[in-house]
Amino acid sequence: MNDYVGTQLRGWDAATFRTASGDPGMRSTVVALTVLERAPDWARLQARMERLTLCVPTLRMRPLYGVMGLSAPRLAVDPYFDLSVHLRRYRVPEGGGWADLLDDARRMSLTDFDADRPLWEAALVEGLPGGAAAFLLKLHHSIADGQATVMMGLSLFEFGPDPDPNEAPAPPPPPAEDVTLREISTANAVDTIRRVGDAAGAAVKGVADFARGSVTDPVTTWGGVLRTLTSIGRVAAVPDGPMSPVLVGRGTTYRFAVFSLPFASIRAAAKRHDGSINDAFLASVACGMDRYHRRHGVVVEDLRVNVPISLRGDAGDRSGQAANAVSIARFPLSIAGLTVAEHMEQAHALVERWRDEPAIRLADPLAEISWFVPVPMLAQAARASDLTTSNVPGPPLTLYLAGVRVTQVYPLVATIGAALNITMVTYDGNAYIGLSADDRAVTDLADLEADLRAGFEAVTGEPVPAAGTTADADEPIGDTPAAEAPQS
Where are the alpha helices (DSSP H) in 111-164? Predict the structure, then answer.
């Protein structure tokens, strides 16, 4: 078999690619918005990006498709890879500002990838207020989750303004050759036969283990099978629809908003209530969403929330790679009538319960089965969620891009069927929140942002300023006060 046909997308990655390709409302992009003190040297930035693609070979891989799309695409090194196709630079119009930058990030996020080239693009944006610049990096969610995006940054960013003489050299370009449709289809057939054989072998072993256990320890064996089947039923259950009477519309476009706050305030809130950072984050979101619904004259008891559960560190995961290693927990989250302490206790209990679900670690096999489910049905199930939240730990120290200090980093993630996506990334002592809101579900994005900031204020007990997103703003996005203590 030709060595240049690459490997086939499997499980969660394949399902993500398929749904994103089959429904514009399921577009699956991650945009990392990095604010820089000033514009870096263009040649040095190009060199850093070239290094990134060598250290993360996925960024040089293009999708290869078999006959009639009957199987998931393969990822193989693109023999025509050209960095200049993926990396560009431009200036905002005279008098433009941070609102224009968010609009550009929105357009980038809503634009489909070239389906025959590596699934990423980047842009250096110059001419921002105060002489600042921004770097936008867009990735397809099928090749990287939030934590994988942070891991990619380890090969892109530097720890000081000067080049590190001790930095390990980048590997040479991976070999690549063009392949024919016949070779792609043959590789897909071989992979399918291998998977069927592996599945059959696993089934035989499972039946044998079950038969043996039924004799030696029937209570434990049958109890384990029942727990797993019940868990699969909970994880794979398709909801009837969103729980919010306000966030009811779904379309194919969304808008971004951002704000930030010192990470120390979130950490202190978590410590006061013996909770985790994620508990404080979810509690803040719940408080903000309760406030937003009351603004609309309704009290909503629960919202259906998607929360990514990281599988990094599990046996057999891909934690050493810039790839997806995540499953999704979907559960009702109470937002009304709770104290801050109760919000945090609830968040902790819900996430821990779902983390212990046996079926959570069957995400890839369940996603394989979803290949036989029509995309419209998968999209309908995704649209039954009110919001997705994600908390991504980032580097706790100052980073540089091509010699220029990184001042802020915002995660801008597609809604992927939900009304909202709220993602937090921590960097250099601050927490940066990116909000994506479906245009049909949310027609008052400024009000929603204000209510979410109020939610964080309720949990942390400290004011959270609005981001400087007006066109005439002189301060960078989310002009965040310095944190009182280094991130941990």
Answer: 146-156
Chain centroid to Cα 70, Å, comes to 27
Specify the residue for token string 């699934």.
119
Residue that wins the pLDDT comparison between 431 and 221: 431
Whose tokens are 């099978």? That residue is 225
Q: How do residues 338-380 score in pLDDT, each as one tens digit?
A: 999 999 999 999 988 877 766 666 666 666 666 667 777 778 8
- For the chain, what are the domain ranges? 7-166, 254-393+413-460
Q: Is 8 helix (H, G, I), strand (E, B) or coil?
A: strand
CATH number of 254-393+413-460: 3.30.559.30
Give, in words, the CATH class of 7-166. alpha beta
Q: How many residues does the chain have?
A: 488
Tokens 């000033």 appear where? 38
Report pLDDT digits (tens) over 382-397. Answer: 888 999 999 999 999 9
Amino acid at 210: F
Q: Pairing mode, if any, of strands 387-392 and 420-427?
A: parallel
The helix (run of H) or strand (run of E) holding residue 326 is strand 326-334
